[in-house]
């Protein structure tokens, strides 16, 4: 297995209405931020080796030069304190996570939680050198906002620790960050599509720009050279297959109607590229590309590359620069 990271540069355009005038410097050059989305492989073994975490934190510090915002998937709940201490030591002073949910559900014998390991969750952190402040974890409600009198509450996953919604104040505006890990569909049936459906509906009905959606979606099965997305179960029949296809397409294409785009594809397109465009490479002729897909709303890419600088540190990772 080979690790991959994508380096994506994003910038708003001068005059975007949702940005205050103070966002722009005197020469109208937009400020930027660097965001790292990374699946750190904390699912197996149940107790992640401390050495692996230390190597990953060292990569963040010495190779990645401490990105402004990091969004981690599969942070091991049994190593929560080590993660928090190690990240704080390199300057990540604001941290939110769902490891507490994972821990509580992992101890529950209420069905179906005895059949889930709940061994890991998501973590989002902001570096002390970044101008953003007040990183806040948002608690999903079924009684507030668009869901107050709604017939559908859009929150029915049995693994809520896979969805981390947070906000951060940057200058005079608020950035929403959705950090998502869709579990493999082969392991827990429809739980994957529940995560995707819940995320899609909550962004669609309740989010405001600017909004960043990042994480490990386990989607799609394939992307063709002309940009056609092939979801998992696309060739199968039946209601479940239809739900599966719809859930993946909504996340990967449906949010484009709101102005959210795959930042790598928006910059470089499809087909034969002169750079790496897979994020889960293998020693096969058909490497996977569905891990660590990143989208955003009201932010516009000005550069985007992928490289292998994190090889050996984790199975899969993804870079973003805004």
Note down, in words, how this protein is organized.
- By secondary structure, the chain is of the alpha+beta class.
- It has one domain: 4-Layer Sandwich (Deoxyribonuclease I, Chain A), CATH 3.60.10.
- Helices cover 22% and strands 27% of the residues.
- The protein has a six-stranded mixed β-sheet with strand order 6-7-8-9-13-12. Strands 4-5-3-2-15 form a five-stranded mixed β-sheet. Strands 1-14 form a two-stranded antiparallel sheet.
- Strand 7 and strand 8 form a beta hairpin.
- 44% of the residues are buried.
Features:
Deoxyribonuclease I, Chain A, single chain, 15 strands, 322 residues, five-stranded mixed β-sheet, alpha+beta
Helices and strands in order:
Layout: E1 5-11, E2 34-39, H1 50-63, E3 69-76, H2 80-89, E4 92-97, H3 99-106, E5 120-127, E6 133-137, E7 163-170, E8 173-181, H4 185-188, H5 191-206, E9 211-216, E10 222-223, E11 229-230, H6 239-252, E12 260-262, H7 263-268, E13 295-297, E14 300-307, E15 316-321
Parallel strand pairs: 2-3, 8-9
Antiparallel strand pairs: 1-14, 2-15, 3-5, 4-5, 6-7, 7-8, 9-13, 10-11, 12-13
Helix pairs in contact: 1-2, 5-6
């Amino acid at each position: 297995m080979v690790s991959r990271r994508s380096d994506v540069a994003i910038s708003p355009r001068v005059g975007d209405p949702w940005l205050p005038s103070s966002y722009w410097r005197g020469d109208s050059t937009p400020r930027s931020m660097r965001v790292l989305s990374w699946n750190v492989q904390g699912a197996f073994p149940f107790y992640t080796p401390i050495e692996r975490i230390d190597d990953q934190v060292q990569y963040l510090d010495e190779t990645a030069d401490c990105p402004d915002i990091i969004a981690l998937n599969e942070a091991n709940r049994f190593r929560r304190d080590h993660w928090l201490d190690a990240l704080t030591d390199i300057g990540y002073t604001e941290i939110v996570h769902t490891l507490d949910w994972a821990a509580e559900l992992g101890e529950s014998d209420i069905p179906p939680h005895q059949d889930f390991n709940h061994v890991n969750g998501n973590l989002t952190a902001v570096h002390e050198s970044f101008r953003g402040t007040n990183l806040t974890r948002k608690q999903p409600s079924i009684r507030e906002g668009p869901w107050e009198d709604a017939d559908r509450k859009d929150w029915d996953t049995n693994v809520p620790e896979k969805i981390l919604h947070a906000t951060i104040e940057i200058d005079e505006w608020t950035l929403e960050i959705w950090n998502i890990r869709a579990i493999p569909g082969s392991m827990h049936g429809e739980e994957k599509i529940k995560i995707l459906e819940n995320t899609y509906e909550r962004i669609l009905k309740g989010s405001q720009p600017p909004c960043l959606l990042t994480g490990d979606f386990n989607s799609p099965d394939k992307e063709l050279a002309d940009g056609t997305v092939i979801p998992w179960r696309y060739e199968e029949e039946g209601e479940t297959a239809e739900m599966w296809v719809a859930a993946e397409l909504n996340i990967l294409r449906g949010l484009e109607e709101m102005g959210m785009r795959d930042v790598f594809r928006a910059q470089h397109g499809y087909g034969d590229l002169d750079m790496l465009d897979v994020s889960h490479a293998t020693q096969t002729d058909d490497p996977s590309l569905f891990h660590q897909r990143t989208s955003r709303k009201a932010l516009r890419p000005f550069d985007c590359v992928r490289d292998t600088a994190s090889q050996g540190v984790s199975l899969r990772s993804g870079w973003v620069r805004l």
